[in-house]
Design brief:
The structure is a single chain. The chain is α+β, with helices and mostly antiparallel strands and about 140 residues long. Helix content is about 20%, strand content about 40%. It starts with a strand and ends with a strand.
Length: about 140
């Protein structure tokens, strides 16, 4: 069994849902060496989240953002407002979606479904760079 760990910093992104599957794969190319394993992703932030969802139709990203804003609008009467109106809603959305994923690795690739992609869900208007810890564990492919 082998362990690999990488840190990935994504550049600032606008508010919304952003596909990051290729960023992840480029950051930890050792996936191609693993026959069977797991990739764990951990986002080190409290106002963004990571998710798996459809990666084919860009309208899905727009609809996800629209739905999240209906679930937790900025005009709710929050007490924690010192970092702006979008901060506390971002914390709520991050708690609902989550900051970590565990993904199966099979035959040197992520075992995602046909229409699945990995998303950074940016819940702030100006969230800044986002850091992820990528931890890969698995059985190497036979040589």
């Amino acid at each position: 069994m082998r362990w690999y760990q990488r840190n990935l910093t994504l550049p600032p992104k606008s508010r919304g849902f952003h596909l990051i599957t290729e960023d992840i794969l480029q950051a930890i190319p050792e996936i191609s060496e693993i026959e069977t394993g797991l990739l764990h992703l951990f986002l080190q932030h409290t106002s963004a989240s990571i998710s798996i969802n459809e990666n084919a139709d860009p309208d899905v990203r727009v609809d996800l953002e629209t739905a999240m804003n209906r679930v937790c609008p900025e005009d709710m009467p929050f007490i924690h407002t010192c970092e702006g109106r979008d901060d506390m809603p971002a914390h709520v959305k991050s708690s609902l979606v989550g900051c970590q994923l565990s993904l199966p690795v099979s035959q040197g690739a992520l075992a995602l479904g046909t229409w699945q992609g990995l998303y950074l869900c940016e819940h702030r208007n100006r969230g800044g760079a986002r850091r992820l810890v990528l931890t890969l564990w698995g059985q190497p492919s036979p040589s």
